[in-house]
Amino acid sequence: MSPVLAGVLQLLALVATLGLSYRPLGDHMARVYSSERHLRPEKWIYRAIGARPDTGMRWPAYLRGVLAFSAVSVLFLYLLQRAQGSLPGSLGFVSIDPDQAFNTAASFVANTNWQSYAGEQAMGHVVQTGGLAVQNFVSAAVGMAVAVALVRGFARTRTGELGNFWADLVRGVVRILLPISVIGALVLVACGAIQNFSGIHEVGQFTGGTQQWNGGAVASQEVIKELGTNGGGYFNANSAHPFENPNGLSNLFEIYLILVIPFALTRTFGRMVGSLRQGYAILGTMAVIWLGFTALMMWTEFAHKGTAFELAGGAMEGKETRFGIAGSSLFAVATTLTSTGAVNSFHSSYTGFGGGLTLLGMQLGEIAPGGVGSGLYGMLVMAVIAVFLAGLMVGRTPEYLGKKIGTREIKLAACYLLVTPALVLGFTAVALALPTPPHSMTNSGAHGFSEILYAYTSGANNNGSAFAGLNADTPWFNATIGLAMLLGRFLPMVFVLALAGALAEQRPVPVTAGTLRTEKPLFAGLLVGTIGIVTGLTYFPALALGPLAEGLAA
Amino acid sequence: MNHSVGNTGRLLAAGLRALLVLTLVCGVLYPLAVTGIARLAFPGRANGSELRDADGRTVGSSLIGQTYLAGDAPDLRWFQPRPSRGLGTNSANTRYDLVLSGATNRSGDNADLIGWVTDAKAAVVRDNSVAGHTVRPEDVPADAVTSSGSGLDPHISPEYARLQVHRVAARNGLAVARVDRLVAAHTDGRILGFIGEPRVNVLELNVALKELADRQ
């Protein structure tokens, strides 16, 4: 069998397994977020928090919950790293410096998982398992909570209430993320991922002597790293490390984990707004973009344009033998079209166009299918923009899901759209204009520019993958990427929740002959076009200076 | 004013309590439960898939690539792995000598990478051309001259393994056909016929080769 055919079959296997879990998982999540019942462990948790889970919150209260929980999380994770040197169970590793500790705390709370440290030599068991892995769960649950609040904004009328943040947070963890993680972690261990609490120990080698290994609760962290679209590796090499991703099957399983919740949330959305077909339209839009990117990525990586790759006879630099070109390309697209940022191969050593695709995937706003929660709310904001554009064309007040998209709604959607590009392009421009930041580049010319553009794109979009040639462990990059991650995560959430509040207050608009049918393929096409135009107008000049210049020169 | 400060304080306290409870659930109970089950069900894999040779000596992990050197140069008796130029050394916590996984992160037009690939190709051709068997540059597969993502790739492609057969046979005084069969026996196909890529585990192959050579 040719590698290309094997790649296509792996893609089809992914489509099939995602399809099989779409209905049960999507419906399960809809029940979780609509149920009136509380499980017993959840009641204990609410009592410990001191929360009343049945109290409905208006958008400002919901937002205050998100921000308070996240602020406490940043502070806790920062202090945990700063105290690592004195904590037991830390393998004797030293405390993390303030700039790096801030960067890492911001990174994991913002669901980005950008890493300016090398896991195996910096973070002990306590920080990895008790700090970073916990944020993998809760930052994902926060994203899902905000998405569900927006969906409720569409579904509810004449109320300002969007649900209870604490209940949504706890349910997301207890009823969705934890059960899948337990099963998934065991699947990964069965494939060969490690799961222990060993200290650093010596293991014999073939030619004599020993090598030093550190143990760790790797499988349990790996599974939620993918499932929660987090992406922070236990080891420096992330999912390229054989202890995180031991074989082709674990690789395909990890790609599945990355995609399963973001895709299934469109079903949850359809259920909750009372029209499954509205969910299918969003799903179709996401799937078209994902499949298109995957096809392009496989094509360019198999074609291996670039001096070094042509010399080598294949683009295998930075890729593992057991995954090959196909398994690596599938992973690279899934990780950058969601907010994951885990890597099983190193994007900096992709072909010029391949690297450009990973950048562009993030710049779409990570909405195809996007991060857990953030993908859905990002896509719904795009849908609001699309109905607005359609409304302009026919001269009608735009509506979406029975809600008027008026001045207030469109302003909030536009603000949402502007945040990330402003952060990405602003920080990139400043970093390049200053004398020292460019010293961090490994490659020069167009690729060096891409390293910095990639870093801020990844940070502000909460992806976390890197053109890792960039030495990002400097005070400048730690501080600015840390800020980009926090602002890129929480400012959009402010606009999303405000939008949700505005929508929930409205009375429904009856469907008439003139209503744009947003459940039809035509609308999905319009949505794809809108995403393309908005992203293209925003990022084309920057992409032309980086990956396009490199790809055309090859 | 005082009212809102009190509110903010109460909210932050609730956030802290939520974080602590969820840390207990997701950061303590969950990993301990998974570790417990994993140790019972898959003890070898949970601890790193350690591999022993015929004498019962631990020779590493079947998942972690090693180097097979004589001094600084490749020991040509053994099958050689892929280059691993992305591997790092401890820069923090230097009391340890941990293997630091990683990639080179060089782009296709990078002068370093072009030089490394050129040199690696020349070395593979030189090392594997033995009397009566010449390796041509176009026979060298891509994995033989490029570094992997982790720097710890335990595998090479079947093409690269077969390319080394003549050399390994000559250096160990074995018949080429015998070593060929050894490589074939250690070649894993795609899982279920289409998942992943065909590959040869270098450590497992070398352990078997050593056994064969010792029996000779």
TrEMBL record, chain A:
Membrane-topology annotation of the record: Multi-pass membrane protein
GO molecular function terms noted in the UniProt entry: P-type potassium transmembrane transporter activity; potassium ion binding
Transmembrane segments: 61-80, 137-155, 176-197, 249-268, 280-299, 376-394, 415-434, 476-501, 522-542
Highest taxon, organism lineage: Bacteria
Cell inner membrane recorded as keyword: no
Subcellular locations according to the entry: Cell membrane
Magnesium in keyword set: no
Main subcellular localisation: membrane
Keywords: Cell membrane, Ion transport, Membrane, Potassium, Potassium transport, Transmembrane, Transmembrane helix, Transport
InterPro entries, alphabetized: KdpA (IPR004623)
An example Gene Ontology CC term for this record: plasma membrane
Subunit structure: The system is composed of three essential subunits: KdpA, KdpB and KdpC.
Family to which the UniProt record says this protein belongs: Belongs to the KdpA family.
Function recorded in the entry: Part of the high-affinity ATP-driven potassium transport (or Kdp) system, which catalyzes the hydrolysis of ATP coupled with the electrogenic transport of potassium into the cytoplasm. This subunit binds the extracellular potassium ions and delivers the ions to the membrane domain of KdpB through an intramembrane tunnel.
Listed name of the protein: Potassium-transporting ATPase potassium-binding subunit
Organism: Streptomyces termitum
Gene: kdpA
TrEMBL record, chain B:
A GO CC term attached to the entry: plasma membrane
InterPro entries, per database record: KdpC (IPR003820)
Keyword Cell division: no
Transmembrane spans: 20-42
Pfam families named among the record's database cross-references: KdpC
Keyword Phosphoprotein in annotation: no
Topology in membrane: Single-pass membrane protein
Keywords: ATP-binding, Cell membrane, Ion transport, Membrane, Nucleotide-binding, Potassium, Potassium transport, Transmembrane, Transmembrane helix, Transport
Record localization: Cell membrane
Entry's Gene Ontology molecular function annotations: ATP binding; P-type potassium transmembrane transporter activity
Subunit (UniProt): The system is composed of three essential subunits: KdpA, KdpB and KdpC.
Family: Belongs to the KdpC family.
Function: Part of the high-affinity ATP-driven potassium transport (or Kdp) system, which catalyzes the hydrolysis of ATP coupled with the electrogenic transport of potassium into the cytoplasm. This subunit acts as a catalytic chaperone that increases the ATP-binding affinity of the ATP-hydrolyzing subunit KdpB by the formation of a transient KdpB/KdpC/ATP ternary complex.
Listed name of the protein: Potassium-transporting ATPase KdpC subunit
Annotated organism of origin: Streptomyces termitum
